[in-house]
Design goal:
The chain has 3 helices and 10 strands, in the order E-E-E-E-E-E-E-H-E-E-E-H-H. The protein is an alpha+beta fold. The protein has 2 domains: about 30 residues, no CATH class; about 130 residues, Nucleoside Triphosphate Pyrophosphohydrolase. It has a 4-stranded mixed sheet with strand order 7-4-9-8, with helices on both faces. It has a 3-stranded antiparallel sheet with strand order 1-2-3, with no helix packed on it.
């Protein structure tokens, strides 16, 4: 949706912040603060032994270490599946032969435009990783059942990771058009 009027307050490397004047469906006109983000993709990488790849990553904004799926920001004109594949290799040192879409989730729809695309990857193989200097990451293999327990008991607090793990475990229906087999 397009605002009636948009005032730009900040434009940075990743986000843009605006105040948008909008007309709501109930006829009320209001000003909303919006953080524009290009979106991202995250991967539940499930190996033959039933383990998933989880990253223990230091996140300054969250105040410390978090458990997360390999994930990253969409680059301009980059399809979400390519983002997921790129980030799985860069962050976790893995690639997959088969990919299945697990749908999307919204990180905080009251203020952020960020839309996260979730994937299940199987047929896992090792490749070399390429962490960015600003990334502090430990790569772990965790049994899917245990990771789902962590998602439910609050050990994992990252929303995309909780949703991705539970959709992978409890069989979210495939998203039409996202099945990709035989990825080299």
């Amino acid at each position: 949706m397009k605002p009636d009027h948009e005032t730009l307050h900040f434009s940075g490397r990743v986000i843009r912040v605006t105040t948008d004047e909008v007309l709501l469906p109930n006829g009320h006109r209001t000003l909303l603060e919006v953080v524009h983000h290009p979106g991202g993709a995250a991967t539940v990488a499930l190996d033959e032994e039933g383990c998933v790849c989880l990253l223990r990553q230091y996140r300054y904004v969250a105040g410390g270490w978090l458990w997360e799926l390999p994930a990253g920001k969409l680059e301009p004109d980059e399809p979400p599946l390519l983002t997921a594949q790129r980030e799985l290799a860069e962050e976790a040192g893995l690639k997959a032969r088969e990919w299945l879409g697990l749908g999307e989730c919204l990180s905080s729809p009251g203020v952020f435009t960020e839309r996260l695309h979730l994937y299940l990857a199987t047929g896992i193989e090792r490749v070399s990783s390429a962490h960015e200097r600003a990334e502090v990451i430990e790569v772990h293999r965790v049994p899917l059942e245990e990771a789902c327990r962590w998602a439910l008991d609050g050990t994992i607090t990252d929303a995309k990771t909780v949703i991705g793990l539970l959709r992978a475990r409890y069989g979210a229906p495939p998203v039409p058009g996202t099945e990709v087999a035989g990825i080299p």
